[in-house]
Write a structure and sequence with these properties.
Chain lengths: ~130, ~325
């Protein structure tokens, strides 16, 4: 089996730095920052770590809620395709800064794409 | 999946939990007295222990790995998804202490000295829950240092709010009265590693209490890097502990003091800018030198500055913070 992008970045220890990089980008981006403005920054970072681990193919031990439930409240607040595009874009920038190649960034984006309908709370496009 | 509401078991009783109800609310609705203060998962006054069942992860946020392993959790933010049996930590978790002295100083601050019945194993900057004889609970940060002040001596700085339940009581309490303590809690303290790194301590009002403890602890532990203590009050005349701080700075070349007040008045040596402005001006130059930041006091300052420093490039792991959340009244059915 080929090594995952998660392992290539440096696994668990590197995730902490990756999460900070990603979270800083998200909070600086007017398109999506308001979804993340919770004062509980530690809680938010733990969740973003779950996000990054999942999309980079890290150990499949995500035990949180399913993607639909995790984002249901955000859908009520107007979460749409544009927001998903923005998150995938910021994810790409983060990985690039960590030295991940374009091809692999595409693979990660594809994993994020695959849950787009769940995140947006709609039945998968037929 | 079952849609029956989960049940809570406590002291032989079974309580059906309402949707979204916390363990604290459910117990209070039954007339069970659980110490609590902030009701937001921060002060740890309401720590309980799970006997069986699964705890939601947010109910253990901020607890040490050891306490998590023991099943400790915060009742005020615990909304169980399934059946849960809980117990109180019991009197064993409480330590009795005597109020030795309450001295009033500027800024309506009470300098409180307690002597614990046995030595308390704590780090300066952590906080304890102070329990009045009738059970009223409030968290306070620790300004003393065991190695310097003695292992059974605890110093607190309590801002006296008119009408404040605990601070008003302390303002008039007789010396010699017995109280109880829980804790210590929290991770806002100095660790003796990387002794050459700069430290930035920022606090408003009695946020100075933990910072004074942290600064003395670091200096006593041989910290060599520059330590900047940036503290403030709204009015310059409300600044307190200035003599003690000046003495400490005179003894240690690596300690720099910056006092700030928005209303400077006649005061000299007081910076008229807000604490966060001064902190943001100074901190970033030290990020690459391993700066550690300690933030204590008013929640708006602490949470705001934490976020601003993070956005300016500080790692969250280099920021230690305690927001002094006010106590929140009991809500829901239990309050009627
Ligand atoms: C982790 C932690 C550490 C803390 N450490 C300290 C400490 O070292 N020193 C310290 O003095 N406090 C500290 N606090 C706050 C402390 O726990 C109490 O909330 C505070 O002393 C007020 O309690 P009280 O019973 O006197 O007032 P309460 O009876 O709870 O409040 C009565 C009234 O007092 C006024 N009041 C209370 N708090 C505030 C406030 N923050 N701002 C403006 N008005 C207020 C309000 O009018 C309120 O209605 C800490 C809190 C936390 C969560
Ligand atoms: C593109 C695919 C996405 C994936 C794979 C994904 C994944 C995740 C994961 C794993 C969590 C953690 C849930 C938990 O632990 O409870 C989470 C939470 C969260 N996500 Fe996403 N996410 C995606 C898109 C988005 C978008 C587009 C936004 C907003 C712009 C967003 C905002 C959030 C927020 C705010 C939370 C925290 C929710 C809470 O606090 O309850 N996510 N996401």
């Amino acid at each position: 089996m080929s090594t995952s992008i998660y392992e290539k970045i440096g696994g668990e220890p590197a995730m902490a730095a990756a999460v900070e990089l990603f979270y800083r980008k998200v909070l600086s981006d007017d398109r999506v920052a308001h979804f993340f403005s919770d004062v509980d920054m530690d809680g938010q970072m733990a969740k973003q770590k779950g996000f990054l681990t999942m999309v980079t193919g890290g150990p499949n031990n995500y035990t949180g809620r399913n993607m639909r439930d995790a984002h249901a409240k955000l859908v009520v607040k107007g979460l749409d395709d544009g927001h998903v595009d923005a998150i995938i874009e910021l994810l790409g920038e983060t990985l690039k800064e960590l030295g991940v190649g374009d091809e692999e960034i595409q693979q990660v984006a594809a994993i994020a794409e695959s849950v787009r309908d769940d995140v947006l709370g709609r039945s998968s496009a037929s | 999946m079952s849609h029956a509401s989960p049940t809570l078991r406590f002291a032989g009783e079974t309580i059906a939990l309402e949707r979204g109800q916390t363990v604290l609310e459910a117990l209070e609705a039954r007339g069970v007295a659980v110490p609590s203060s902030c009701r937001a998962g921060a002060c740890q006054s309401c720590t309980m222990r799970a006997v069986s069942g699964e705890l939601p992860s947010e109910s253990q946020a901020g607890l040490s790995p050891a306490k998590r392993a023991l099943g400790h959790f915060l009742a005020c933010v615990c909304r169980p998804a399934g059946d849960l049996e809980v117990a109180s930590l019991g009197d064993a978790a409480e330590l009795s202490a005597t109020i030795v002295e309450v001295r009033r100083t500027s800024g309506a601050v009470l300098l409180v000295r307690l002597r614990t019945a046995s030595p308390l194993d704590y780090r300066p900057g952590q906080f304890i829950t102070l329990l009045r004889p009738d059970g009223l609970a409030r968290p306070y940060s620790i300004a003393s240092v065991p190695a310097l002040d003695g292992p059974s001596e605890l110093h607190l700085h309590v801002r006296h709010y008119p009408g404040g339940a605990m601070s008003g009581w302390l303002a008039g309490v007789r010396e010699g009265v017995e109280v109880s303590l829980r804790g210590p809690f929290g991770e806002c303290f100095y660790v003796a590693e990387d002794r050459d790194a700069p430290l930035l301590l920022v606090g408003s009002g009695t946020g100075l209490a933990p910072l004074y403890g942290i600064a003395r602890d670091a200096l006593a532990g041989g910290h060599r890097g520059p330590i900047t203590l940036l503290y403030g009050a709204r009015r310059a005349e409300d600044l307190y502990l200035r003599e003690e701080l000046a003495l400490l700075a005179a003894e240690h070349d690596n300690l720099e003091l910056i006092a700030s007040a928005l209303e400077v008045g006649e005061a000299v040596d007081v910076d008229g800018r807000a604490l966060d402005v001064i902190a943001l001006e100074r901190a970033p130059a030290d990020f690459s030198r391993g700066l550690r930041v300690f933030l204590c006091g008013a929640p708006a300052l602490v949470n705001g500055l934490r976020r601003q420093l993070f956005m300016a490039g500080a790692s969250m792991r280099s920021i230690f913070a305690d927001a002094f959340l006010p106590s929140a009244p009991a809500t829901g059915p239990s309050s009627v």
